[in-house]
Model the fold of this input.
Amino acid sequence: MRPDNEHLIELLSTKGEEALQELYKQAYEVKKQFVGTTVYFRGLIELSNICTKNCYYCGIRSGNPEFQRYQLSYEEAMAEAIWCYENHYGSLVIQAGEREDKAWTDFITRLIKGVKEATNGKLGITLSLGEQTEDIYRQWFEAGAHRYLLRIETTNRDLYKQLHPADHSFAHRLACLRILKKLGYQVGTGVMVGLPGQSIANIADDILFFYDEDVDMLGMGPYIPHHGTPLKHLVEGFNGKAALELGLKMIAACRIALKDVNIATTTALQALHPEGRELGLMAGANVLMPNITDTKYREGYQLYEGKPCLDENANQCISCLSRRIASIGETIGFDEWGDSRHFTKRQE
Ligand code: SAM
Ligand code: SF4
Done:
C-alpha cells in the first residue's frame, strides 16, 4: 500500500528523546519482521576522486582544486577486492566520481570481469559510478555487476536545480534509474537529508518517490557541508546533532513505510557520532559498507567535513565493526550477497 503522506510527515517530525526511541523501536520491529537482524557487509572501494561533475554540495566536485586527484590501479583495486573476498565480505561496492570516457568505462568493465574471475563469481558487485549511457550500464551488467546505487539526491526539482549546475539534469538521473531497473540491476537510490532549503514535506515526498519507483535499496545520509564547495558558509553553525537525528528518523520512516528494502547505514552518520552507523542499524538499516580503500587515498575522498576512519585500515575496521555489531545483538552475514528481499519478490 502506498504510504500515507501525512503519516510520513508525522514520523519525520518526531521530537523528544522518548518519542524518538519509540520511533526507532517501531522501525526495528518492522526490520526484524521483514528483513531480519543480519547485517550485510559491502566492502567499499573509493576507486577514484576524479569527477567531471560539479555538484555544489560535494567536496570532490571538479571545481574544488584542493585535492590531488587519484585513481587506483587495476592491481590495487583487485588486491582490495580479493581482501574483501578472503575476509568473507559477501559483496563489494565500487564507487567513484563520475566519468564517461571510454578509458574509464573499459577500465571498470575489466575490473568487474577480473573480480568475478578471481572470486569464482562469488563476490557480489555493486557499482556507484553515476550517470552513464544504457550501453555502458548493459556492458557492466553483462560483465557481472548486479546492483547499482544512484542517489536521486532530492526529488524536489527546484532544490535539485539550486544544488547543481545547469547542465546537471534531474530528468536524466531519473531516466538512468529506470534504465538500470529495466536492465535487471537491483536498484538503489537515496537522498541527502538536511539540505539547505529542504523541508520535512520534501523528505516525505522523497519516500513516496522511493515507493513509486519501486526501488530495492536505499542509501541515505545527512548532508554535511564541506569548506571546498559553494555551500561553505554552512560549515560554521552546522548542527551535527540535529543532522544525525534527521538522518536516523529518515531511516526509521523508510523502514516503516517500505518494509523489505535494503537500507544502508552510511558513513555520514558515523561522521556525526562515533556510533552513528550502529544507531542507523537500530533505526532500521540492515546494510553496512566498511571502507576498504587503502588509507593513503582516503584524504582525497572527502565528500564532507570530518569523514571518519581516514587512518584506519580495513583490518582494523573489521575487528572494530564485528565488536560493535555483536554489542547490539546482531549478526554479520559473512559470505552472503544479502540481496534485497524487495528485489527477490519483484522477480517472482
Ligand atoms: N559520483 C557518484 C554519484 O554522484 O552518484 C558516486 C559517488 S558520490 C561521492 C556518492 C554520494 O555522496 C552522492 O550521491 C551524494 O549523495 C553523497 N554526498 C556528496 N556530498 C555530500 C555531502 N556534503 N554530505 C553528504 N553526502 C554527500
Ligand atoms: Fe561528482 Fe558524485 Fe560528487 Fe557529484 S556527488 S561532484 S557526481 S562525486
Q: What stands out?
A: The pocket of S-adenosylmethionine (ligand 1) is lined by residues 57-58, 95, 97-98, 128, 130, 150-151, 153, 192, 221, 223-224, 226, 268, 303-304 (CB under 6 Å). The radius of gyration is 19 Å. The chain has a mean pLDDT of 95. The chain is about 45% helix and 15% strand.
